[in-house]
């Protein structure tokens, strides 16, 4: 029979059990950091003039437990240099049994584990900040092995710190509510390299400080997370090279896996996305809020401010103020900047913006100024010219300023206007174009890159998978060279010498000359070899970095902004000036490092690169520790890089096969395409076998060879389509390999169209009648620039007739013009002409550069309002009269104009400008299986545009004002 218990005894026992339970719960609370995620969490404190951090990362091979450890490698110049590492801990009350433990492995002994002790009720009389003191624990003694270090808040240790405080500040100090909030690693680093591996940090028991205890605020606990020192970006004390991507709603884990950091979140109030990035260990870049009125109007800094940013914004690394900011936007940006500086006093994050002009002004307002240009698929604007343009814009900015740029990964919006992005043949950029653009920007000295996208990277339209994979591979390469790129100062562009002229080892045969019988198109008897495209400039950008010299050889191929070609050569010789024989030379990639032989020459040393496939990286250094660090980073990247390259080649092969088959069906195929595709497929098989054997280097090389074979075929197709055009942009579909089938369909439509009433819509396009020019609203515009005088006039040195149009800009008398002309000095725009949806408009004329255009890399340009400057024709060098022509498909009925601009100092002449609307047939050519014997007479698909126009009467100058002579017999000129 159970005994009976009195109520008083029962209550006392319950209270005792509750107390014991609470104590047990408190004792069970524990903080554990396993260092398994991708983001580093220790902060390094040392004198940067005496200590250089070589590497700070999470290490997946050397670890004590879990999937990773935190690795720090540094080198010091002096015999003894103090270094301290700090790690945040949850604030924990000081108890005799409070213990921190950490597993440590190092190549040197001496590291000591400690804790930071906080006295929340004591303020330093000099600084006013809460007083802290360090507690010391075990020292590391077992060099080369893992050792568990501990540190305890014993009564003896704590009392010794209190006695020292009383001696310094007096006996009347308040030591209540003491807690710890930092784990510390302190060491006296000896001369040379020191490496630490840290794993499994624990703190137990964690008891939260009592309510009301003053806690250190983040700005009191840590130095700024990010800062810009002239042209160097430091994040958590280390140099940082941004690799930016915009988020469009795709899984953030996918962007993190592609190695982007930071990720641009357009809405800074999206706390869910920010928390997700923080959990992934990835930084964010965000667009900050604006101060607005109740009606939505933006308020300036004098009228309103922004609410201070709280801890929820901590994952944000930079504030992005926008793209393409013009000089006219300066006042608004200055006001916004002032509001942000006041609202972000806690974190003091850098302001980032991409500007289009006034670089000298903006580089003083923005710590990280960007400048970008949409140059892909534009005529006469090669990668080398793009590189020089970036260098030019950098020289306009404040000396020593930080420069970054957006890399174009999609066609210009104006070129895709009216095109369905989900169609079979959308305009795309080849992965090689993104690579060449990236390395051209690096060669210009950019300290950060953003990869511009308007659609998520999880899309699956043609080219999307290749874009994802090339961005991943480029990020691996940037990650490998991050420290070199982030500290490099551009010295020069070194010319590269080829041992022998590049040849297309795998020659491609063109189609036969046009024949009436489609069956003859694939004949082999009269096939001719495709000439190797003019690979005209090979240069290596040379940088001096904190670690040695960095060389970035780049193949700047003409017209590669449309369809890249082979761009591969063996035994490339580079003479590097000013290098001593003691330095070692290494070719470095994401899958292999090899020492390169060097030979002394009068200028320095000569190195030979066995193979240059578009781009490469060479480091020259006497620091063997740095070479070892690069090798370790490369070994970590090898399998992932090889997998990305293999997948990229497979995706490219599938896409090229699909386009090639479509071209064959349109009677526009090449006889050798099947052989080239078979070779590419065989190389891919070799890449797969290498991958299976874990030979990652050859897997990457064979994948690259397969892509090279496909590039040869792609460019052969493109040359066949563009050979009769005055410029690749003459057709809207020859600016991309993917859209070549649409080009041949366009040619077919023109060839079968009927245009009985051919009309030049420009009545005064021959510039013979000044009165008509004035009456029809030809526009003459000028941008006034100090030191430049410009004009547009009728000039008596035409191609034919009496007059042509002359645009001229020259230095003003007694004044010095700017080195870089900020805006086109003079332009002329034609009257608006009416066009209808479905029409094809032929724009033609003649142009002559009378004096070279300087001060602008754009030269003289001509473009239509349907496509805009993105589809402009460009000319730079003096020469004789040359003909130009363009075809434009009208997507929507309305008006169009043609604009002629002189963008720098120089002189250009235009004559016989015409705009001719064509009425094509919409039917497509039958496939080979559908056509009947009587339908074998196909249109001439290889002729020039003028031959394909359906027997246009020749346009003669005279009283017709440039119109068709037959038309003027029936209509009076206005």
Describe the structure concisely for a colleague:
The longest helix is centred in the middle third of the chain and has 42 residues, at 624-665. Helix 14 (673-692) packs antiparallel against helix 15 (696-722).
The fraction of residues assigned to DSSP E strands is: 25-35%
Radius of gyration over C-alpha positions, nearest whole angstrom: 34 Å
* Helix percentage range: 25-40%
- In DSSP terms, counting alpha (H) and pi (I) runs of 4 or more, how many helices? 19
Overall form? globular
Describe this structure in words.
The protein has 974 residues and is an alpha+beta fold. Among the domains are: 28-212, Sandwich (Jelly Rolls), CATH 2.60.120.260; 238-368, no CATH class; 753-968, Galactose-binding domain-like (Jelly Rolls, Sandwich). The strands form seven sheets. Strands 1, 2, 3, 4, 5, 6, 7, 8 and 9 form a nine-stranded antiparallel beta sheet that branches. A nine-stranded antiparallel beta sheet has the order 26-25-29-23-22-21-24-28-27. β13 (243-246), α4 and β14 form a beta-alpha-beta unit. α10 (431-443) runs parallel beside α11.
